[in-house]
Each structure stands twice: as structure tokens, then as C-alpha cells.
Amino acid sequence: MSTPSDSAAEVDRREALRLLLRNPLVTARGDPDGFALVRRHADELKRDFERFFGYRLVVEGRFARLHKAGLGARSGRRLTRATTGTHFSPRAYAYLVLALAATVTAPEQMLLSELVAEIRAAATEAGIDLGEPGGAQKRHLTAALRKLIDWDVLSETEGSVDALLADDEREALLTIDTEIARRIVSGPVGRARSPQELVAAAEQTDHGGPRTSVRRRIAETPVVYLDDLGDDERAWLRRNQRREQVNFHDMLGAELEIRAEGIALVREQDDFTDTEFPGTGTVAQAALLLIGRLLETARPDGAGHPAAGGRLVIGVPVPAARIDTLLSELAAEHSSAWSKAYVADIRALRADVCRLLCDMRLLAPVEPTRAEQAERAAHAAAEDAGAQDSAQSGADRQVTDVSAARGQRAESAAADDAGEHWVLLAAAARYRPHATKRPRTEPATEGDAP
């Protein structure tokens, strides 16, 4: 938050920083006021992002692009279709990448049919079988092109890309911004030979070590739990958390809430993300009500700060069957107000509710945490280096033990399909259900094939 002593320029700079964290691509066409703000403070913003987060900011005449780093597996958020709010399917992502490949070297203007031909040619070159261009394929392709329009890579000069959905031969004239197209992809694609390598390479940083990686997680995720961090990161945060409260206030005008189980960035108006929670719609209401029902029984004993003799609790296990039962009960109670498609398909409702709660860091699948993964890697390295080096390394680092902070280690559920079991995380305790029945206004869920 700003204070009376903050200058107007300081307030504007912080607003521009938050804007770019929320929306890493700001264009003159899509957000003229925001882009003007970024251009006005471009030099300071470039310096601040590089120094504080290790991010690179590019500001050109028509756009500003913040090149962020990845945060590892399961940390990303799926794209959604603007018209329905449904998530991109794997096929829609394939079309999006192929469309980008076709636009980076495209002329300034193309007919829609020409762009589609270039996309199919790129697919053939990449060995991707797109199949016959039927109705589902056209919907996936249209969703990809609509996303490029949202990003101002494409603009509809005459006609609309929705012509793809029609049965006739209608055309559209598209204008292409190749400069923006070339800046969309930010990860080290050329250095990766598999999706797993790409995710790992995108997370790596040679700038600032634990300081930079912890700051990125604080700024980019709703909550950072201690077991989201490796030993070095937890040790750094323990030494510097009070100083970081000042740093984040000075940088972003936000406060850091420090608790035994982790740390979170708090602002009166949450303008770091475009995800609102609690929110409206069936999924958001079901998620909030589910949290309330789970909290009725998920109350661990002896929770507290280890320094005060308490037991560190980051989460408590929740059987998947419990979630299914509660969602079925809630769907029956709210059947007149909720989406009929979700009421009829509890599996689909569970998938989207759990995805939203995972995005908000209120729920997590039972799987190895980053702390456990780092511990395994350290043990493997220690075995290679020798037991004596391992003992010395452990003696040199005093960090909070997070090995059982989620009620059970991931290994205990490995034999019972870890992906189908969940952990209710500590931050869920701050939410209480206030959803009310309201007339259903959501569009029907699309039945696109993947």
C-alpha cells in the first residue's frame, strides 16, 4: 500500500511493476494507459525487475514484454477461452504453438485461409497429425487464433476468425504483428529435448541464487509454504524474512504476511493476479463451499510454531472419496443455481474445483514436495561425494524440518495412486463459505474432443 510520503512517481512505478507481474505482455493497442505508464518508467522498471527478480523487461514502441522464469512443475496456469472460460485442451495448445510458428515470419497481412494453410504446413513439418479439419478441430484452432488476437499478435482487419466455424467459404483479412509474435515464447525451448527438461531449464537461475528464487515464488504464487522451498531457500528466508518485508513494501507497495507454515504477499486490492477467489460461478462457489465442509473435520492437534514447541502443520491429508462425496452433496443442494453440466458430471466438477484450489494454493495433490525433491537430490549428491561430506553439510545448515508437515510423506501414498489423493493446505483456514444461490448464467460447457 502507498503512504502519504510516497511521491506520485513512486506510486506509478509500483503500479507498473504490479501490472507487468500480472500481465507480462502489455500492448499499446490492448492497454494504452498501462502501456503509457510502463513506457514512462521503462528504465527504472528494467533495473528493478533485473535486480529484484532476475527478470528481463523489453519495452518497444508498441508493447512491453516481461520475460519471467518458470517455477517448476505444476506451477503454471492453463490458458482459458475468453468466450466460455473453459481451459485450453492439448490440441488447442498445439494449434497455438503452430500458429505462432506461422506468424513470426509472416507478411504484414494474410488471408485467414492462407494462415490456416501455413499452420497445417508447420504441423506436417513438425510431424504432428492434425487429422481431418472437423468441427472440434476448428473450435480448437479458433480458440488459438482468438488468444493471439487477445495478445495483439493478430488483428481482424476485415471479417473474423470465427469464419472457421461456419460451413461456408467466408474469408477474413488478418494483420500480423511479427515483433510481438517473436516475443511471446519466453522459455529456453532450444535447450530442451523434452517437456520435463524445458520445465526444469525454465526454473533455473544464475542470478541471485536462493534470494531470487524465493522472491519469484513470493511474487508469483498466492502462498509460499516452507516445503515449497529447498534447504538453502528456507535458510535464506529464515535469515532475511523481516528485511524482505521492507523490500517488498518498497518495491511493490505490498505487505508480507509471515506465518509458521510459510509466507504470502498481501495487498488490500489484490492486483497481482487476474484470478479472483472467492469468485462467482459454479466452480468458484463449489470450491469455497468445499473448503468450508473440509474444514469442519480437518483440524490437526498441536499445530503451532516449532520454536514455541508446536508441530509444524502445512496441510492435512484428504481422501479423494471425501471430496467426491462432499461435491455430490453440494451439487444436490445447489442444483437449481449451478451449471447443469457440472451438476450432471461430478468428475468434471471435481477436476475444475481441485484445479482452482491448487492454483490458489489451498489444496495440493499428494506428491513429493520441492523440499522432498531437494532432499533426495542432496542425498544422491552426498552419496557420490562421500558420507563424511554429507554429515558436514548437514551440520552446517540449520533449517526447519518440513518432512511430515503435510500429515504424511508422499511415499506413503505412492502405492495407492498419489495423484488421486489430496492435501488441504494451511491457507484454506482463512476462507469461510459465503456463496449464495443465484440464477444460472453460465454458458454450457463445451464438449470438445481433446
Helix/strand/pairing category: mainly alpha
Give the total of beta strands: 12
Give the C-alpha Rg. Answer: 24 Å
Low-pLDDT stretches: 390-396, 409-419, 435-450
The fraction of residues assigned to DSSP E strands is 5-15%
Largest sheet: 3 strands, antiparallel
Mean of all residue-level pLDDT scores = 85
Give the ordered list of helices and strands. HEHHEEHEHHEEHHHEHEEHEHHHEHHHE
The span between the termini is 44 Å
Classify the helix fraction into a percent range: 40-55%
Shape: globular
Strand order of the largest sheet: 1-3-2
Quaternary organisation: single chain
Put simply, the count of helices is 17
Show the helix and strand layout.
Blueprint: H1 8-22, E1 25-27, H2 32-40, H3 42-53, E2 56-59, E3 63-67, H4 90-103, E4 109-111, H5 112-126, H6 135-150, E5 154-158, E6 173-176, H7 178-184, H8 195-203, H9 210-220, E7 224-225, H10 231-252, E8 255-259, E9 262-266, H11 282-295, E10 315-318, H12 320-333, H13 340-344, H14 346-359, E11 363-365, H15 370-385, H16 387-396, H17 411-414, E12 422-425
Antiparallel strand pairs: 1-3, 2-3, 4-6, 5-6, 7-9, 8-9, 10-12, 11-12
